[in-house]
């Protein structure tokens, strides 16, 4: 086990929108920066329709959930961890009233075998036009 603080970036997850890594390893813990549903190499956000001014005209929370979970998986695996090693998940939703039931159903599909601690909060906006973002902590064996 190392005590070095190692910055890690995935070649598959969307590029960060600021000066931060996808993840940082400290000892046998892996801390992920906030992860959204955007696709790597593009500004395209699965399940989101924007007008010409960049405002959300419609979105599909199910498509966004599946995409953000895939992006988390990419980062975990590229960093040497795995979905099963997740120990804590913080979920940010921009519309708890309309989206929580769908998100909770999809979450249960993905986490039926591994049940990390979870906190879900509603916020009024995220830095890009998305409806969900995850902040995760995992272990590295």
UniProtKB/TrEMBL annotation:
Its domain of life? Bacteria
Q: InterPro entries from the entry? A: RutC-like_sf (IPR035959), YjgF/YER057c/UK114 (IPR006175)
* GO function term, MF aspect, one: deaminase activity
Q: Name one Pfam family in it.
A: Ribonuc_L-PSP
Q: Which GO terms describe its cellular component?
A: cytosol
Membrane-spanning intervals of the chain: none
PANTHER family found in the cross-reference section = 2-AMINOMUCONATE DEAMINASE (PTHR11803:SF48), 2-IMINOBUTANOATE/2-IMINOPROPANOATE DEAMINASE RIDA (PTHR11803)
| Protein name, per record | 2-aminomuconate deaminase
Organism the protein comes from: Pontibacter ramchanderi
